[in-house]
Amino acid sequence: PTAGGIGMLGMGAGGLDVAVAMGGGAYYITMPKVIKVNLVGKLSDYVGAKDVILEVLRLLSVKGGVGAVIEYSGEGVKTLSVPQRATITNMGAELGATSSIFPSDAETEKFLRAQGRAEDYIPLEADPDAVYDKEYTVDLSALRPLAACPHSPDNIKSVESLAGAKIDQVCIGSCTNSSLSDMLTVAKMLKGKTVHPDVSLSISPGSKQVYTMLAECGALADLIAAGARILECACGPCIGMGFSPKSKGVSLRTFNRNFLARSGTADASVYLVSLETAAASAIAGVFCDPTTLGTAPKIDMPERFSINDNLIELPASEEDAKALTVERGPNIKPIPKGEAPKENLECELILKVGDNITTDHIMPAGAKILPYRSNVPKLSEFCFTVCDKDFPERAKAKGGGVILGGQNYGQGSSREHAALVPLYLGVKAVVAKSFARIHQANLINFGIVPMTLKCEADYDKIAEGEKIYIEGFAEAIRSKDEAVLVTERGEKIPLVLTLSERQREILLAGGTLNYTKAKSSAK
Question: Does domain 1-144 have CATH number 3.30.470.20?
């Protein structure tokens, strides 16, 4: 979604969907609604792009963008640079949005010229008579620094209301706030100062280009002199790969997600803030409203960025590709494949969880777990352990079953392991009040049937550990929009199957791998 900052329609997708598209197949998506966010005014000193998207999250919530593209427009758009726009569109994923997009205008052309790609500029904007499903207005001039409090990106408070509260750690960077202009702003704020002795500060530049240019202009030295620790251009602390907060620690991060335990520390409190708030607080040792600091430093951006593509390697030719071999180490295990559904589903409800369950809840990441990314049997030992430490063993002992979730099940990262690992543990279906778009697609890709409760109140009528039965399960997938789940106590729960014809075929085949293989063999 970061691509939306230059007027490009970029959509998050699971790896299997991407692989099929790269192999010549189509990428399918339900036509989204369009939500217009009209930006007026201009940001004040020390109020950043992060504060804009946090305000939008406050207005819409983490499920407010589900099934929609967020389109930004208005006079305020002209006051935002491409990196600022990219910060805003990046966190469209936290709205549950299919994508977010800004117009392609003079700022876009300026950015592309600096990257040596002026010839790629195409002006793009909404038609004057465009019709929207919903419209919101955000006054940039009225915004003040905001923070997303634990443990959700839409749990918004003003930084002013948090001012003075002690902090332990600050992390600046990641895919959300790591552009050259972001890093230069932080370097200017820190120059000649020292990070508070009770605070650890990390900096994650957004790319090799940003890292190089920080070094060339001396800003990197300013950051290091202030006490910052420079990390790789990677997800890093955002997914708990190093720099985890101390136990019960308070961490301020310019990242995009603050889900429970995502940082690698289960009892840490993670706040999402702007880079301006993060830098000011790193020096103060407490939450600090940067607007109290006076006039913000001015950043001089180069007209031309440093371009070095020496590490870009083009794909092998079709002829050379035939000689390539794939080397698999001992930690790379085969991918489990789904099976065609049985005519009737009889099993146990092996887990019941609440609203806004994230893919971090389903399949945690972090330094302890990510080394097993290609080893699904080992990964399965961690599945849902954030919610229930006994789930993996119980799922294996029961031979799998069904999971019951609440609203917005599967929000957050597009990680397909959150579908792949439950498949390995024998999960046949997930019933929820509603699903996040990408996770629902990933479930279907791996042959797990997503179904929604026709009446959300029925959520309370099903108990974890209860035997359940769905008669005509396969037939419902094949041709029906509803099915009935019967509990061992005799409760009859109507379920809804919102599936396209293609998705029905995929589920009946046991997943996209089986479906694609069968289609290819038939040609």
Answer: no
